[in-house]
Amino acid sequence: MQKGGFNFDLYQRNVELIEKNNYKVPKTTKTGTTIVGVVFSDGVVLGADTRATSGPIVADPNCEKIHRISDYIWCAGAGTAADTENTTGMISLQLELLSLSTGRSPRVRTALTLLKNFLFRYHGYISAALVLGGVDFTGPHLHMIHPHGSTSTLPYISMGSGSLAAMAVLETGYNSKMGEEDAKSLVHQAILSGILNDLGSGGNVDLCVIKHKSMEFFRNIDTTNSKRKFRKKLPYMFKSGSTKILEKEIKEKMEKMEIVNEKENEIEELEEL
Amino acid sequence: MDLSGLETEQKTLPIISYSSDFLENGLPNFKTQTLPKHPVEKMQINKQKNEREKQYNMLGKVFGSQYPLMLRLEEEIYNQPLRLPCLPSSYLSLEVFRGTDIEVEPEDLYNDPNNSLLIQPPVHQQMEQYLGMNDLK
């Protein structure tokens, strides 16, 4: 019986292409993102840029990279956009079912285990690098999840192609006794650093502050990098005579001609007979 | 973390089958059945079966060999189709027993066979194929 899920029909064709036809395997594309998470005294701050690239082209200059897993558990995703969105959507579904069947509010650690097991099953073929942060009844938690299924628990995390730029800022500015405002500004600076110094990141800055039973989402908190300073006023108005005329040809309008089909007339004559 | 799906080394020869209905399924092509499969596909095929076997082994060692026997019997009972042949059964009790009723897999969300673009052969033909009755002898 036919089953749903992923389709592996083309695998054998790909193997043959690579072995016999010397097909060049496309390189794994780097994740064009900067995502950051920081733990402060009362909770967690997540930050992300908003550029989605498709090769060298900006596919979406203002996309949302911070996904909801539960009310107070949010996840920023780098990698293939479809993979991050669908993975976080599926785990959010599973977590909701689990919390309903157990009767308890969901924990960040549960979401971490679900994501980790899911990604490990697919051996890294689902390229979703995630920064999972949230506050549950045990306190604030922040984790990073790699596409192959390995995880780390750290006080500050950066992932994506802009992770080096963001990590530089985090290492300089982080201290374990930060308050909410300090943490927000640190994450903001880290994302800005990623946007300015990495080609794959750009657009606006999104922030998400999660505390005990409270969540604030600052969508497009900083739009200075996406406003284009020099923009021509549309529509384009050209003065008549601005393009030079090289040749002129005037065609007369043709009269309508009726083409009579001789064979039709013959058939009509035969029918009459 | 379960590594059961990683045991993918073939310990037996591959079982090659073909249907005699050439018009429906094409001429026999044994090559595609012996070629290597995608590592994730191999994992998916082996995972659930291996996991259940391992769990039964563990339970047998902890609680005695009668307990997994009882569980296997229960699973067999739930695995019976309760509808007439050719009609799909829901196997809800089996899903509850295995704990998969509260689990959501990509198999449930993506590539729903009901929405597939290929036209499925009629039910009687599927049943004949299942019972191996479509030999041209």
From TrEMBL, chain A:
SUPFAM superfamilies in the cross-refs: N-terminal nucleophile aminohydrolases (Ntn hydrolases)
Keywords of the record: Coiled coil, Cytoplasm, Hydrolase, Nucleus, Protease, Proteasome, Threonine protease
InterPro entries associated with the record: Ntn_hydrolases_N (IPR029055), Pept_T1A_subB (IPR000243), Proteasome_bsu_CS (IPR016050), Proteasome_sua/b (IPR001353), Proteasome_suB-type (IPR023333)
GO biological process: proteolysis involved in protein catabolic process
Catalytically driven reaction(s): Cleavage of peptide bonds with very broad specificity
Keyword Coiled coil among UniProt keywords: yes
GO molecular function, one term: threonine-type endopeptidase activity
Localization (cell): Cytoplasm; Nucleus
GO cellular component, one term: nucleus
Top-rank taxon: Eukaryota
Coiled-coil regions, chain positions: 243-273
Active site: T33
Name of one Pfam family that matches: Proteasome
Family: Belongs to the peptidase T1B family.
Function as written in the Swiss-Prot or TrEMBL entry: Component of the proteasome, a multicatalytic proteinase complex which is characterized by its ability to cleave peptides with Arg, Phe, Tyr, Leu, and Glu adjacent to the leaving group at neutral or slightly basic pH. The proteasome has an ATP-dependent proteolytic activity.
Assembly and interaction partners: Component of the proteasome complex.
Protein name stated in the entry: Proteasome subunit beta
Lineage: Eukaryota, Metamonada, Anaeramoebidae, Anaeramoeba
From TrEMBL, chain B:
Membrane-crossing segments per the record: none
InterPro entries cross-referenced by the UniProt entry: Ump1
Keywords: Chaperone, Proteasome
One cellular component term from this protein's GO annotations in UniProt: proteasome complex
Source domain of life: Eukaryota
Family assignment from sequence similarity: Belongs to the POMP/UMP1 family.
Record PANTHER family: PROTEASOME MATURATION PROTEIN, PROTEASOME MATURATION PROTEIN UMP1
Protein name in UniProt: Proteasome maturation protein
